[in-house]
Amino acid sequence: MAGAGERDGEEEEEEIVCLEASFFINDKYTSLSLSFFHYLPPCLLKTDFDLTGQLVWPGAMLLNEYLSKNVDLLKGCSVIELGSGVGITGILCSRFCREVVLTDHNDEVQKILKKNIELHSSKDHSHHAELVAEKLEWGNSDQINQILRRRPGGFDLILGADIYILGSVPLLFDTVKQLLQVRERDCCKFILAYVSRAKIMDSLVVSEAIRHGMQINEIPGTRSVVGNLEGVIFEVTLLEKSPM
């Protein structure tokens, strides 16, 4: 006769349910238009929570609001966005930039990103920059170099919004550093829309930027409440090297 401990173990084992990967993936998207700077970029997104990259997160709303009020920052620039998700920020940027590269590491997210690029390109936007989607896993030097081989001059701006989870922050700043170093002598910077959800993450983002040889500064006037969370825009640049 089985003892109580054995029965508990059996019950715990029975509660374990294994689901196929397809359970978390579907191709049902909702079309949404968001208004920034009197501009409505059409965008497909998910209405459930299968993958974080298939949603529009508060940080993206914060970043888009900031960019729409500071369009001179974008005019004539080449831009790469990290963790683009559905691509809403890149679509906005394409109205003002000369080049926009949207990146994400997830193949399913890449599908919706490319769908949104096609949807945007199907409209009459002849005066907008060309939108390109590239696969980029943070810290993957091969993928970074592949992107840079096609753009040896690098980028004027690196953008990111709500793109941090605890284990990914060091790889995020490793990627940012590699991109910033291409334009070391020019004014290249990383604009990060940050939404505070945990104090440990607040300190980690700042400490990792510093550890990677960067300075991270809050842009004055950008601190605001997004939903019920506090958000802010950071400007991140490489520290200037001391003269020999």
From TrEMBL:
Gene3D superfamilies: Vaccinia Virus protein VP39. One of its GO terms (cellular component) is nucleus. InterPro entries: Methyltransf_16 (IPR019410), METTL22 (IPR038899), SAM-dependent_MTases_sf (IPR029063). It comes from Punica granatum (Pomegranate). GO terms for molecular function: protein methyltransferase activity. This is Protein N-lysine methyltransferase METTL21A. Coiled coil: none annotated. Pfam families: Methyltransf_16.
